[in-house]
Amino acid sequence: MNSEKRKTGSISQDQKKELIQFMEQNPDLGSGKFTKKFTFKTGQELWMQITQILNSLPGAKKDWRQWRKTWADIKVYTKKKNALIKNYRVTTGGGPTLPIDKILTTEDEKVVSMIGPLLIDGLDVEEPSAMFNFEQEPEENS
Question: Which UniProt keywords apply (predicted)?
Answer without folding.
Answer: Transcription, Transcription regulation
